[in-house]
Amino acid sequence: AYEPLLVEKREAAVSPGDSEDAPLPDDLTRDSLSLPALAEPELARHYTRLSQETYGVTSGPFPLGSCTMKYNPPLLEDVAADPSAAVHPDRPVETIQGTLEVMATLQDWLGRIGGMDAVTLQPPAGAAGEYTGLLIAKAYHEDHGNDRDEVIIPDSAHGTNFASAAMAGFDVVELPSAEDGRVDMDALEAAVGDSTAALMLTNPNTLGLFERDIEAIAEIVHDAGGLLYYDGANLNALLGRARPGDMGFDVMHYNVHKTFATPHGGGGPGAGPVGVVSDLAPYLPEPHVRETADSDYELYEPERTVGKVHGFHGNWLVLLKAYAYIRRLGDAGLSDASAKAVLNANYLAEQIDLEIPYGPFHHEFVASAGDRDAIDVAKHMLDFGVHPPTTKWPELVSEALMTEPTEVESKETLDQLAAAFEAASAADAADLDDAPRRTTARRIDQVEAARNPRLSWHAFDGPE
Amino acid sequence: AYEPLLVEKREAAVSPGDSEDAPLPDDLTRDSLSLPALAEPELARHYTRLSQETYGVTSGPFPLGSCTMKYNPPLLEDVAADPSAAVHPDRPVETIQGTLEVMATLQDWLGRIGGMDAVTLQPPAGAAGEYTGLLIAKAYHEDHGNDRDEVIIPDSAHGTNFASAAMAGFDVVELPSAEDGRVDMDALEAAVGDSTAALMLTNPNTLGLFERDIEAIAEIVHDAGGLLYYDGANLNALLGRARPGDMGFDVMHYNVHKTFATPHGGGGPGAGPVGVVSDLAPYLPEPHVRETADSDYELYEPERTVGKVHGFHGNWLVLLKAYAYIRRLGDAGLSDASAKAVLNANYLAEQIDLEIPYGPFHHEFVASAGDRDAIDVAKHMLDFGVHPPTTKWPELVSEALMTEPTEVESKETLDQLAAAFEAASAADAADLDDAPRRTTARRIDQVEAARNPRLSWHAFDGPE
Amino acid sequence: MTDTGRGSPYAPHTAAETRSMLDAVGVDDEEALFDVPNSIRFDGQFGIDARSESATRREARRTLARNDDLVSFLGRGHYAHEIPSVVADLASRSEFLTSYTQYQPEVAQGFLQALFEYQSMLVELTGLEIANCSMHDRATALGEAATLATRVRETAGSTVLVPDLVREEQRAVLENYARGGDLSIATVPTDDGTVDIDALEGIIDEEVVMVYAENPTVRGTIEEGLETIGDLAAAHDALFCLGSDPVALALLEEPASVGADVVVGDAGTLGLGQAYGMGHGLFATREDFLRQVPGRLVGASTDQSGRRAYTLTLQTREQHIRRERATSNICTNQAWVALRTAMHVAWLGPDGLLELAEDCVRNARELAARVDEIDGLHAPVHDRHHFREFVVATDQPADAIRDRLAKEGFAVHAVDEHRLQLCVTDANEHATDRLVAALREVA
Amino acid sequence: MTDTGRGSPYAPHTAAETRSMLDAVGVDDEEALFDVPNSIRFDGQFGIDARSESATRREARRTLARNDDLVSFLGRGHYAHEIPSVVADLASRSEFLTSYTQYQPEVAQGFLQALFEYQSMLVELTGLEIANCSMHDRATALGEAATLATRVRETAGSTVLVPDLVREEQRAVLENYARGGDLSIATVPTDDGTVDIDALEGIIDEEVVMVYAENPTVRGTIEEGLETIGDLAAAHDALFCLGSDPVALALLEEPASVGADVVVGDAGTLGLGQAYGMGHGLFATREDFLRQVPGRLVGASTDQSGRRAYTLTLQTREQHIRRERATSNICTNQAWVALRTAMHVAWLGPDGLLELAEDCVRNARELAARVDEIDGLHAPVHDRHHFREFVVATDQPADAIRDRLAKEGFAVHAVDEHRLQLCVTDANEHATDRLVAALREVA
How far apart are CA A232 and CA A218, in angstroms? Predict the structure, then answer.
């Protein structure tokens, strides 16, 4: 059912100057303020309805490629809701030893999981992690007297890689993929050089393929004096099977909201901790947490720190949830998560008839909608009660349906997903045009939204 | 969407004797046990879907007469979730002073609100409160050498009144209503006598009418040697305006899940504290809480206690929620709740065209569906996104629609309700027969359910 | 939300809306709508101060903080098992929490299905064919069993037999039910913590309408003669009512297999945790008694489009229809706790539930052995298998030990002058080392 | 759920299902699916022990209990206001919590509408026409404002002016953004806690692309010359970026009315509470910059049936489409915190929010007056109006007072050798009497 905007239910205006005992002179206060004015029961109904119009992981399968929409255990929320966790960032360190112990432990665990020597928890998201890693690479090269202003990125990489490189002040060199969907070694040889600051790589890549030549890639980049950056978006494919550090990566970020089950929250908050090899540890953001000789914890400024990428200590509550998840699973649980994630992707792929041009894939695969528009197929999948995969990307596959079921789906829900894939991709043109039909909103006009931007309820003040 | 049963998703059996290190000899253990075997993500989806197929107060208006479906503030849940509240009933009293202080305070507040001298919190529901009150009346009369085995109950009373009287070992004398929907004074005079243990009354009664002659009623019953019992189901009509104790009632119960906003939980738990005048205080259930001279709290056995009506101390967590609600509202909030509850009922009645034979009513009214079947009208109201009123009761009104909107509805939602009343009662026969159409399930076959009882999933083991 | 002390924060009316509604009704103010004689008008002054939301929360927290922070080793009919976070999360969804008894099943399919699943789990656990949606608690369920017995027994009779080891509080509740139903309670002696079968044989006669036994007992002992008790009851046309809980039922003898006609207990043992005795009454019985069962029943049916649907059924047994001839006065029950129990059982699954139950035996046995090694303590007192709990004989006065343990942060029960009782579950087993160390100090 | 240490408790596969899936795929075991050279195969031994759910909860609680239980009077950019219970309840509904960025708007209308409402509230509070869905935090929002300035300014230039009183951590973040964007930061002096307008006039020139100011400042002072700052910035074709928060915005001068081009701040000040600095970056700006705004924007549109619907819009600004030419690298933002902020604003309503803001002035004024009466303390140091917090001059060393207060259960900030800072909101005002008493003891 259509839910009105808060202001359409009841609105009221106040004027700070109006009250007898106004605490400030008129010239320091605003004239008026007009906001929704609802009682709590009305708000409860409003947001309950809005929640029911939102598809989450608890609604059904959510196989978005490279997003790792796994189940978010309420255990994590309980741990994060502990009132003892609600501390102020200016508290003296001796009064927040609990928080610092959690952070130091998480740093240690992430280091073990990635094969990295040191980890910062400060970056508040994956892209912030990329940016942090690149700031570290930049500082490292500057320190070593190298003027390296290029970052090499495969054409199949996540868009954030490019944007983060730009933000950190690098030029981007795009690396075409080889025919097998992996890094083109010749192109890489050609691309690296004295200007190469780093190569950014996802492994397995966005097609789900493991870069088998990763050791050779590392050698090429390292020989050229560059660093190897690992984009952790796909780490859920490899837990316990291979570690970026062992592959030759120098810097990596972790997406705890992907691999370690902290909830996506409709777009965030996440957290993007960054791990580095020991040579790069002096460059980590400040402050950094470490254990002292007497088992206490302290904050310190790494010797050659790149400074800060978050105003405080990053997304603490999210980090706390990741800590709880890793502790709950332990070695066997983490390894099993990857085993089942990879099995699920392979099983699902086996159940659908669409072409999957590249393989062998791991936790995700990219199918092609063929002569159908991938977006149409996705929209029609909504009618079967599942969330569709990521569409039209990566571009290596035409009409791509980039699919990552994660380990939390059962054979039953994978079969349900497969049925939705089949039904949607077999539908006739009229049905596809008309999809979705069973959703809260029917197909939404994106062109209108962009041509005539209405970005707040003030846009509805006049006649609509 | 249809949600399968848990066992239909995955089931597994275990046999206690099978394990190597079984801790008990075979002859003390069961043979096997077969239960749903699902992982947490699957359960989360199952129950999320089931919740979305359930209409609660946060879904929309819920105007069930005599049920007082008011908004249940999450504040109350937060208070009850305090880990300090999770105590064992066998804890020594000196280690649970917090719990006892809450209980003593709630006893005091309920006493003030009802005009009663002492209050027990032990009855776990309204009907248990009635039963407790009648046990007290019985013990009181026995103590005074009176052999009184009749309880007088108006024909319009809640069904629990009759059943509770029977459970307490009384004979029920049904009192017909007068033409104005209130107690028939002549009939009452005729009914009372040496056998009268008590008269049970709801005030305002189930038609929403205040028994204006309550003082005369009390005199008649008291003169005959009987006690006056107040059914607190409709107390939300009178908060701050009139108190049962002041009207002449000797015993009453409170429904904290009605008047004091503790959630109904799909049928319970509630709590049905019982208040009594000082003469009856010695008969309260044991143990009872009281403050000591040095501001501590203790449990004691009232001198002439009727014993126990709950194995421990009643529904503690529910009582704690009621305590928080009363504290949040205070005098003005409680009085305002009744003011708005009564205003809402009168406003809603004003907006609908159906006949309302009795008045002036307070927090609820009983409209008649006229020549329509009240159940049909109710089912069709579901199609307009609201919950219908209670149907076919009280029987004084033909095709009754017993309606109590409570104070939490706004003018807007009352207008929405009124529109649903109007549309449903004006619908043609075919539409009524076919209603509801927009609900999870269509009209359900009650006859089939009763004739061929299938009360567990084991009923589906064979061919369905 | 600036209305503390000014009115109900949960009534959404603005002054203007109130005004227009009053106008529509045709009165000047709300007071005019109260048809209450002046002689009994009340001035609204209860003397209860309002608080802001945060002050309410703070005050409640401060008050509850007067409860000492103790690790509890208490049991005796109210047990704590660890509640998975997901149970609280799902059960607190407002659609579940704020809904009503399912009198409009078309918009309550979710809760009805959950209750149907609850019933089904209890049917599986008890082996009986019918389980209702819940009674108030174990004690009231026992009372209802006694009144059921009077309704279904073919010949007259007025005695309910109860072991001497039943909690006195439960017996007190039963006594009130018995009084209303013209029943009397007689006691069956126990022998070393379980029913004395010979004594029972001597006592039972045609006057007996119901025999009650518990497994495990309030002392944690596991009954070994249930089948004999069942046979004795059957031979005298008495109902056999067995008290248990859903954890114990997963491991111990299936009630149906020992001839139980009714099973009662606290099903809140799973799903709710320690709540000062709050729980919910498990009530299961045989199909023969279908029309006599107290409490609500959810049944499967079909809807107008032919699909499976759930509804409350056989409501003609209930008070709102049958009034004084109802099978019980129960109306509001403990549905939401039953929902939590079902969620907890489902979370555990058969493996998890059985393991939890087996640990109740293993942990009690292990703790008893460790306690027995302490000078001045002897455990278990009863030469029986135990479930969760056991009795400890003490050389020192039991009260003194209990009080000293409270100072050390532990709550234990003193049975009598020289006996303690200890209960261990997954909720406190992490503290057993500390308890044993403390016992070593204070015993 | 008996699988602790045996596998992921959140993977639902039974052994039989795994087997049949492996068969369908045509491999013997999962390991065969990993296309990883042996040379870099890892053995899975991280050395991290698994824990049961309850043990995980217990361990986390025990670890966090190492945080001292202090009443915080800290502020300086991270503020605590009381969160209504209903906000946590609604925000934790799993549909909100577990959903993704709304790339399929047809099944995300609820979250999109909530974000649209969030944007609308910030538009109202700032007076600017556009607010995005959130940046990571206030500091990154400031950094994004600086890079926006370089994109929208008509002439070249490379200086960002920042008051000397800005938190050094925020400035450090800005410096990294500046470095990537070839900008440099210059400092504007302050005079008695607010921007020295004369000094600013002297410094500002055509090189300046953005002038930043805060209201209130990190010392709680309220700026009085905002309009002048705005005029100066405009006169030099520099953006005027104002730092604030949603509570202050409800009372203090509307940014648009003083010429602000961008407003940044921590919107998590409402809805989230103390979270060790976690919050979410408020970012609002003028309509002119629509195509240059960083971050996600929700817009209204219509669906195929002509009804109003919401969708992420103008995505061509974003990294997943424009890659290195995007307006920002931001992808995952703080949407769920924005949801909570919107809920909290809606709960307060205009009256409640204004009252909360006014109390931030009144309570700070009152507490300063009370502190000023204590021997050895002088407050407020700055002769300005204050919001929430103020600086206190101390005769004793400030560190010593801070440490002694910590022992008494209070956390306060030592600005330097002889200055403390105190922050008072609805979340700690109940403890001001105790704080004053403690200050009297230790000052």
Answer: 17
